[in-house]
Known about the structure:
- By secondary structure, the protein is of the alpha/beta class.
- It folds into 3 domains: 235 residues, Aminohydrolase, N-terminal nucleophile (Ntn) domain (Glutamine Phosphoribosylpyrophosphate, subunit 1, domain 1); 196 residues, Glucose-6-phosphate isomerase like protein, domain 1 (Rossmann fold, 3-Layer(aba) Sandwich); 137 residues, 3-Layer(aba) Sandwich (Rossmann fold).
- The protein is 33% helix and 24% strand.
- The protein has 16 helices and 27 strands.
- Bound molecules: 5-amino-5-deoxy-1-O-phosphono-D-mannitol.
- The site of 5-amino-5-deoxy-1-O-phosphono-D-mannitol has 16 residues, from helix 8 and helix 14.
Amino acid sequence: MCGITGYIGDNESASVLSAGLKNLEYRGYDSAGIALIGDDVTVHKQEGTIDGLTIPSNADATHGIGHTRWSTHGEPTDANAHPHTDCSGDVAVVHNGILANYHELKEELNGHIFESETDTEVIPHLIEEAIADGADLRAAVMRALDRLEGSFAIAATHADYEGIVAARQDSPLVIGHGDEGMYLGSDVTAFVEYTRQVSFLEDGDVAHLYDDDIEIFNDGERVTREVQTVDWDASAAGKAGHDHYMHKEIHEQPTALRQAISGRVDDLAGNASLNIDLDDGFLQTIDEIHIAACGTSYHAGLYAKELIEPLVDISVRVDLASEYEVYDGHNTQDTLVVAVTQSGETADTLSAIRRAKASGMTTFAVTNTVGSTITREVDDSLFIKAGPEIGVAATKTFVSQVTALALFATYLGRLRGTISADEGADILEDIRQLPSAVQAILDEEAQIRRLAAQYSDSKAFFFIGRGLAQPVALESALKLKEISYAHAEGFAAGELKHGPLALVTENTPVLAFLNQSAAPEETRNNVKEVESRGAPVIGLATDGADESFCKHTIDIPELGRLEPLVANVALQLFAYHVANEMGRPIDKPRNLAKSVTVG
Ligand code: M6R
């Protein structure tokens, strides 16, 4: 859950590494640092964001490594920031992940000088010992790796040895092959402004980067990893004039949705054409789908359940990935397990998938990230094609996940004969309308911003919805709380009177989804219950419907099953503007990071 970058080549290492860290900051931002290697090793590191780090230009440096941290072992302090060095100061190491056995290793390294509270610091000292025994840098890193338990990605350098040695075990690392050198990153955004030619390291790989070459080893054997061209351009990693990545990404949704849908709609057949490798015969006979995911992706999974069950007539179980268990006696042969994950690197989701595989179940990922760990572990993947999402708050990837899952629901329904071609065509038509419906909401941003300003100092916010809108109520509450730190909760509308109503006062706005697709009369009654307790209600109402009993309404284009998804965009904007009114660091909420690679 930290960001690693590395560079060796003709450009000035300090500036390449700083740019890389800036782009990786979403992975962690409590401290940052760089080691530059020339005749010796110079380390610049400190607590805080990369903006606060002063890196003197160093024309003598031939290469370097950098790190942006989300702390696990040891508070965010200058001493705990990476890179870490050995006793001589010649070895520098950056690390992402957790070392399970670092206590034991630290005891063994008795006599070495430790300056931090991190688990990472044992690595440079293990390398130091191997070099003292006559190993070169690569051999020393390999020897250190033999001692490490846990999940990690590391990069190591030494003042007297050429190149950067990097290794991955359960934590991503990507190599960039440029005309002016070789790049290393936790993901492609670290170096996409320099090259789009990439190769993804696999678990157990040790890569030795030189300025014009790379050697990769796995289990002692020399291996090659395919060089692929990624279709992200450099602007995808910038803010394009927006104040925050989150705002940019909210506004990118019509484009992201077009990408998710493009080439996947077969009008004639009333079907989605998904080009997936899962066997049709298997998909016809499964009797249960499990979805495992975390956070926003979990909410996309809940939305998918509401779509799939009625269309496909199959039971869908949705679990938080960290809670996912397979019980003895479960019919694993006829179950499909779907992981929903933007990053494809979330540790809890990966371990849920590993449990499912160990039980013999077929696994499928719905993800944004080509080359991610999950794509290598599951039987097949469906890409949501949303483009890079940098803001910690997931926005465009949520709508793209639900859209990809709606296409998948249509595909399953047609395959299993539970929906006709005409019904399939109707669903696909709604999917096709999504980008313009979302644009219509974005065009109403001024109204939503005014509402956000009016209520930004409220004591708490509640979101209520039924059916397809219930997951969106949960998602909207998560969005608001993570970026504004305001108390926000989402409920099934009918549940309010079973407890949460006690919290409702004139100082707790209630945002209510009044979509027509699920018992609108009942939801109206729930709204009246909160209004009569004095709560101001902001209704998200189907365009044209008279919901004048709400204090405010935001009109949502009528879009059947997908209407709550469109309404979600209005509440992304609401969350953004409340947080902005409160002066919060929207793209870097406290204690969070984009990619949660620890369990
Ligand atoms: O990369 P993933 O989709 O697996 O991430 C799962 C959650 O960590 C993520 O959705 C998180 O809840 C969001 N950043 C919230 O906006």
